[in-house]
Amino acid sequence: MSVRIIRSLDCLGLRSYCKHLLFFPGDIQQANNGNKTFTNLSQTNQYYCDLINILLDLNQKGGHAVSVLQPSSNRAGLNFFEPLLNFDGKARPQFEVLNDSACKLVSLLEDSRKDANSSVCFHELPVTLVGFSKGCCIINQLLLSLSKKSDEQPDLNFPKIEKIFYLDSGHNGDTVFYPIQDSCVEFIKNSKIAIEIWISPYQMRNPNKICATRQKEIDLLSAKLEGMVKVEKIQWDKPPSLDVHFDVLSQFIAKYTEQKAQPVEKYQ
Question: In the chain, which ranges are E strands?
């Protein structure tokens, strides 16, 4: 089974949108019947699934069309996203220059538009990419592909990326938690893409994770992009836990649904 887009725009394509929000999820949730209902693997999973449902419902508020990438498979609680991103036998993402993920995503978006019988063309809408946890590494692969395609295939018809949110980025690998490759940095600069990185103690102060590498990559990316990166600390006074990890997502969704969220602390 391949990845696919769920709940793209609205079923009838009758609404008018000016922007598109494309969400890349992390682990522990699995879509059910291609709709916005998710299986409940635990109380925490249900909380996460409820948040995703709120995110999906943003398309009813106008302004932003919302799409969510459905995993290709789920094994032992881990989501996989082939062929947009390949993994090795230890579930570590493989960032490959030759992975044509940009073209594959364009095809996915077009297929979802046809399935929804929508007249809205995704490439005409400026897009905001949002990755949560493991979903951030899909964005890294996509940027790697786009940085190559911008030279080789300028008529790719990929939508203009306005902004990218990295929400508590993390995966099973040892590096590339953020797009630190020179080609990706140049693509971001040339495309004038704003970057927001939201971090929590779960990914940044967890003794079971490679926290120092994450911090070095954030510092390196911030230096390379010279002020184009904004970093926010979420629940920074709390110990590392899944609750604070999920709270990064809940605060992001609260921001977009205009609900009241706890204030975030700006990264120094």
Answer: 4-6, 17-24, 63-70, 73-75, 78-80, 86-87, 93-94, 127-132, 161-167, 194-199, 229-233, 265-266
Token code pair at residue 43: 């109380």
Question: What domain count does the chain have?
Answer: 1
Q: Which of 86, 195, 89 is nearest to 145 (CA)?
A: 86
Pull the structure tokens for residue 106. Answer: 């364009």
Residues with Cβ within 8 Å of 237's Cβ and at least 6 positions away in sequence, in order, are none
Widest CA span in the chain: 49
Give how far Cα 83 sits from Cα of 51, 103, 117, 132, 231, Å.
26, 11, 25, 19, 30
- Measured distance CA(106)–CA(118) in Å, rounded: 15
In DSSP notation, 81-150 reads -TTTSEE-TTS-EE--TT--HHHHHHHHHHHHHHHTT----GGGS-EEEEEETTHHHHHHHHHHHHHHHH
- pLDDT tens profile 190-199: 999 999 999 9
- CATH number of the domain that residue 18 is part of: 3.40.50.1820
Cβ pair 252, 133 in contact under 8 A: no
**Is a pLDDT exceeding 70 seen at residue 108?**
yes
Other Cβ atoms less than 10 A from the Cβ of 77: the count is: 12
Q: Provide the residue range defining the domain that includes 10.
A: 4-266
Note the pLDDT tens digit of each residue in 227-245. Answer: 899 999 999 999 999 889 9
